[in-house]
Amino acid sequence: MSTMTGKRREPGDGPARSAALLLRVCAGDRIAFRQLYSLTASRVVSVADAVLDDRAAAEEVAQEVYLELWRTARSLDPGRPVLAFLAQVAHRRAVDRARADRSARRRELQYTVLDRPRDHEWERSDVRLALAPAAGAIRQLAAIHHDVLYLAYVRGYSHSEIAEELSIPLGTVKTRLRDTLIRLHTHLQSAGPADPDGGPGRRIRH
Fold this sequence. Notes:
Number of helices: 8
Order of helices and strands: HHHHHHHH
Number of strands: 0
CATH class of the largest domain: Mainly Alpha
CATH topology of the largest domain: Rna Polymerase Sigma Factor, Chain: A
CATH superfamily of the largest domain: RNA polymerase sigma factor, region 2, helix turn helix motif
Strand content: under 5%
Helix content: 55-70%
């Protein structure tokens, strides 16, 4: 397949042409498949990118969409609206990927907390995490709190780098990170006594 770049629309492009191409694709016509791809790929990538906010990942999702289309073509209803169908599949796959990526980041953060070296101090001396309970606490964080903690303590981003990565003000980063550590501290306190020497982390760069 060619790269996922938009093409100038030609006369005859539209639902009728897409439907005609899908009918041929359902019969195993590879040329029609390539033409349908060229006609609709830009839109499919845009749908995935709207979910992922990552062009490269969106293009990968689009490739998966068209592979699924080709594999299942003979069982498809050739009369269904083509672009709506492709957009629906792209959105579903993009959402699945976003969830998987977030789950992977959560696991990485949990493992980092559990494996953290014990020769550093937290940025806030009054907020320390006991290693084992921390993993459970992290799973309960809202996305906005999880993201700043992940970037700060797994990726080692400075406050200013987090602000740029998440497109939020620097003051918001500091507030969210402070609130996140307090939430974790509160959770651990409610879970039981914590080892005051447990879970020291790296100091955040400013």
